[in-house]
Automatic annotation (TrEMBL):
UniProt keyword annotation of Ribosomal protein present: no
Keyword Transit peptide in annotation: no
Name recorded for this polypeptide: Ribosome-binding factor A
Species of provenance: Corallococcus caeni
Alphabetic keyword roster: Ribosome biogenesis
Pfam families noted in UniProt: RBFA
Region spans: Disordered: 1-31
Compositionally biased intervals (Basic residues): 1-13
Gene3D superfamilies, A to Z: 3.30.300.20
Length: 136
């Protein structure tokens, strides 16, 4: 007698990308891990990365995939930065960032980091700064 008769059929919707997780609200744990990742990565960006190509790059968002394997990180560039150089520097820094996350956070699996360019930071105009800070 075959035991395959008693097995449950596989859920084909999970494989096709239309996961059940997308329709459900994220759990409290998922949101907490996502927030902790965002905070830790912001600290690492401000204090640990020494690549001059990443000077002025700011993280704007962090979204953890439902299964926790990929963290999509939105970032903005300074107005004078070359997007290709920054993307290369971020790709090179991914291994270091993941190792630091693994050391600082108690996660079963450290997510892969996917960097997504959100935009360019607005150029600071000296005239606007003089008007705001003049006689106050």
């Amino acid at each position: 007698m075959s035991s395959s008769r008693h097995r449950r059929p596989r859920a084909s919707s999970r494989r096709s990308g239309s996961s059940l997780f997308h329709s459900e609200a994220p759990s409290a744990r998922h949101l907490r891990v996502q927030s902790t990742l965002s905070e830790e990565l912001s600290l690492l960006f401000r204090g640990e990365l020494s690549d001059p190509r990443l000077e002025g790059v700011a993280l704007t968002s962090c979204e953890l995939s439902p299964e926790g394997r990929i963290a999509s990180l939105g970032y903005t560039l300074p107005h004078d930065a070359d997007p290709a150089d920054v993307k290369e520097a971020l790709t090179r820094a991914e291994g270091y960032l993941r190792s630091q996350l693994a050391q600082h956070l108690n996660l079963k699996r450290t997510p892969h980091l996917r960097f997504v360019l959100v935009g360019t930071a607005p150029r600071a105009e000296p005239e606007a700064e003089d008007k705001d800070g003049g006689d106050a």
